[in-house]
Design brief:
Distance between the termini: 51 Å
Order of helices and strands: HHH
Structural class: mainly alpha
Pfam families: bMERB_dom (PF12130)
Shape: elongated
Oligomer: single chain
Protein name: MICA1 monooxygenase
Keywords: Coiled coil, Membrane, Monooxygenase, Oxidoreductase
Strand content: under 5%
Largest sheet: none
GO molecular function, one term: monooxygenase activity
Radius of gyration: 25 Å
Subcellular location: Membrane
Number of helices: 3
């Protein structure tokens, strides 16, 4: 193996490990969000029950419960927004991995000398290139969605 091939292989492995670690981190955070979401649901149910059975409860107490309920709704919305961002990141990681795999296949065909390529090789090379362009376009759409979401949140 020439040095440049070893370097490319090492960098590809490093990038793959980086994607894997990022995917694990996202998965852990999604699980944390799910647990927090359930806790907020339980707190919200308790507050709703208190508000429904408010006979003889001072107005200050009712106001405090309503404020707590609104705060829980705000936290819930924040978690849903974060979860949405993480799901987009998961899709982006999948597309990165797919792009990397297609890129590797394409390199194999492109490294082959042109005179040794069969018509099947040329067709496969064109198909892989088309798939690669499709993946890049999908990643572009995800980035566009993220940008629009950030702008709408501002």
């Amino acid at each position: 193996y020439p040095t440049w091939k070893r370097t490319l292989t090492r960098r590809a492995r490093e990038a793959q490990m980086k994607r894997f670690c990022k995917a694990q981190t996202i998965q852990r955070r999604l699980e944390e969000i799910e647990v927090t979401f359930r806790e907020l649901e339980q707190q919200g149910i308790k507050l709703e029950k208190l508000l429904r059975n408010e006979d003889g409860t001072p107005t200050d107490q009712k106001t405090q419960w309503m404020n707590q309920l609104l705060y829980l709704v705000q936290q819930k919305n924040s978690l849903m927004s974060e979860e949405s961002d993480l799901m987009i990141s998961v899709q982006e990681l999948k597309l990165e991995e797919q792009q990397w795999q297609l890129d590797q296949k394409l390199r194999c065909y492109m490294n082959k000398e042109e005179s040794l390529k069969t018509p099947e090789d040329r067709a496969a090379e064109k198909e892989i290139l088309a798939q690669l362009l499709e993946v890049v376009n999908k990643r572009n759409v995800l980035i566009h969605i993220q940008d629009e979401k950030r702008l709408s949140e501002m």
